[in-house]
Amino acid sequence: MYERALKTLRLYHRLTQSELAEQLGMSRSYLNEIERKRKEPSLDILTKYAERFDIPLSSLMLFAEQTQSPKLDRARLYVADKVLKMLEWIAEDDQDAKSELEKQPTHTH
What we know:
By secondary structure, the chain is mainly α. The chain has helices at residues 2-12, 17-24, 28-35, 43-53, 57-61, 70-103. The model has no long low-confidence stretch (mean pLDDT 77).
């Protein structure tokens, strides 16, 4: 679930993969592989995300942490999914509003 959380963070902050990759000191292709679940992010990469977006590292760990309790893991995944859906909805809504503003003609007098 890391890939979805990290991508959502990037989109929520309206960053391209290239912009974020540069800010985190990695290649765009590596960031792309993380977002497509082809590579697992290292603790170093997660720390860079946490610092860049000013969030606790533990918040990112929510998306991968596993316990000995399957019931607790299901609850954690359920909550994490709802948080991501909310952020995805906000990011999508922001993008739609931006697109609408760009379509409106500008009036000059």
